[in-house]
Amino acid sequence: MLKIIIPTIMLIPTTTMCKPTQLWYTTLIHSMLISLLSLQLFYPSLQPIMNFSNHNLQQNQTSTPLIILSCWLTPLMILASQNHLSTEPLSRKRTFIITTIILQMLLIMTFSTTDLIMFFVLFEATLIPTLMMITRWGNQMERLNAGTYFLFYTLMGSLPLLVALLSLYSNTNSLSILTMQLSPTMLKNTWTNSMWLLAALTAFMIKMPLYGLHLWLPKAHVEAPIAGSMILAAILLKLGGYGIIRIMSTTNFLSKTPYYPFMILALWGIIMTSLICLRQTDLKSLIAYSPVSHMGLVTAATLTQTEWAYTGAITLMIAHGLTSSLLFCLANTKLRRIHSRTLLLTQNMQLLLPLMGTWWLLASLTNMALPPTINLMGELTIITSLFNWSNTTIIITGLGTLITATYTLHMFSSTQWGELPQHIKIMTPSHTREHLIMTLHILPMMLLMMKPELIWGPLYC
Amino acid sequence: MNPHANMIIMSSLILGPMITITSSHWVMAWVGLEINMLAIIPLTGQTTTTHEQFEASIKYFLTQAAASSLLLFSIINNVWNTGQFDITQPTNTLSSTMMTAALTMKLGLAPFHYWLPETLQGTTTMMTLILTTWQKLAPLTLLMMINQSLNTSLLVTLSLLSMMIGGWGGLNQTQLRKIMAFSSIAHLGWMTMILTLSTKLTLLTFYTYITLTTTMLLTIKLLETNKMSTAMTSWTKSPMLNATMMLNLMSLAGLPPLTGFMPKWLILQELTKNHMTIIAATSAILSLLSLFFYIRIAYYSTITLPPNMTNYSQQWRHKNQQKPYLPLMIITSSMLTPIMPTFMMIL
After folding, report:
1. B197 to chain A nearest CA, in Å?
2. How confident is the model over A32-53, as pLDDT tens digits?
3. Domain locations along chain B
4. EC number(s) for this protein (chain A) (predicted)?
5. Nearest-angstrom CA–CA distance, A164 and A122
6. B255 to chain A: which residues are within 8 Å by CB?
7. C-alpha to C-alpha distance for A320 and A340, rounded to whole angstroms
8. Which of A395, B31, B241, B320 reaches 20 to 30 Å from A7, CA-CA?
């Protein structure tokens, strides 16, 4: 595991010391090498042997896909940021790349730690680089508000989480994930235990986000620069899902009543946020609301605590991470050309940028969970496990899938078809770099379609 | 200042808390506090150009004198009841309550905090530094020595009140030294919260607080900013110091993985061990209030730059003054959390 962490840390001196003309190439190639190195973490998934573990850093099937995704995303972030940072002085470019690398390092450590308090400290530590990215390199004045909302929503939930973890520590005297999974404590449905569950889960629910606590998400995603949006949508939301899976495997309530509020909000949020997506005029805001509905599915699944549910949750997290990041990159290509996020200002882009139209098509198809993509595998597994939990959830989840397809088609047809607007005089053709970013997003999805066992989490052994 | 007077005042300033800390007799402790107070009055009264500065030193003198006399009264009460002057022997309830009141008045805890913002605002930055760090040493030591006779619920109430006042009071401030005053009130609240449960953690919080506050005030002095409006142009004076000021502010707010998180985490752990979970959660959430004004300073100075400056332009009359110990302090104020077990062992 140190094979991946130490090179990532060493990227920071690399960034400060390489020649100015080679800054982007060097960091890109090195972070790509690190991500290829991280692919070997898949190896234990294929056999029951765990090679990459010691007392402090360990990966199992739940966390390995997320580590690899966060390593994979760093070169893509560096690729995507080249355009909007080209006007900045060199020291600021370096600072931006260093912020990205620090974020990657913290994320790798978060997903591979074995202790829940260490997980908490690193979970909180990812807030600072993200805050710097949103408020320093965002575009509009609203980014200050966005950063404040982001920080305070997350911290308001995670401070009770700290107290809940410490009270668990004073009860069981150990917060190691490994031993807690083997002996989950059975809890009676008392007021104290319900409050403990509320304190422990709220932080991750805010991060997911759950429907009632999601107000920070549209602000943060819209105001962040492209690299910030990518990492937020792809990985930082999944921190919440990963945390819920860890916490849920440590406790077992004798009755399911304490989980009902979260379940209700998650299921209702799927429909509500999909409907909100249909009414958005801002492209980035539309793409920002769609994670809320997908993560609602993930939240509802992880709360049912079954094997199929965890599998579907992890699959959908990875698939949605790649899809959402791809959609944000596509929106960024449009933003760089017309400097506006309004949905209807660029219609019939298929005529002007046909190759980008291919990527728009693939992104929309994966977003609406077309078979046989991994998005569909995740969603179908989750829908099945929720159906097993309670038969009536099929109405909500089915309706959610339908509305997801509707707004995705609306987004695709608004940007690609329709009448060409009269005011577009100059539309620079697509850069090779942009095509490369899209390819690097689609390629893992296509490959994972061939071997989805890699991201199936605990179901595969 | 006259070098002879300066020498006398400085040595008395250092001598006073040393006498208090090392004494086991109540009267010697009180004498140390008095020497300290008499030494610092001329220092706070050095600059009397504005009315505000004049008032600050008078307020400081009156508060400290009142607190000292209340402490003397409680000492005499203690002697009358128990017949001995030993600090380490337990005292009776009335004496310990009055001692708590006197020492919290000296520290600047709520509800006796009203003198602190104006006093810290009215003096120079170096004096603010001494007032927030060195002056807190003697009263806090006395509180730690009598901690077994103190009333836990009184102290917890005072500390929660301090955290609330430190948080809400700092929200409307634009002067940086007043903000540091309210941050001092909130941090002292954290220190006294855990006083009866574990003096080790009080000491750890105190050391961390001294490091963070010293770094912050030295940064303010070097960048020569006293208000948030001048903090916005401090990046022209020293961009690196500006960036580290942001890290220092986050550390003061208690964000992981910086040093300021370490005492908060350990205090919450001790509180939950003693089944004070609701108090722990409340105090954790109250620290979010002070996070807001720290983040506001960080926004104005570091994270958002004026829109017309894309090229770095330095201030044209730039004095290059350095303090060689400042980088070490910055590192100490940001990166100590991973070696937390060391502190648990040595304290």
Report:
1. 15
2. 999 999 888 776 655 555 556 6
3. 3-346
4. 7.1.1.2
5. 17
6. 124-125, 127-128, 155
7. 25
8. B241
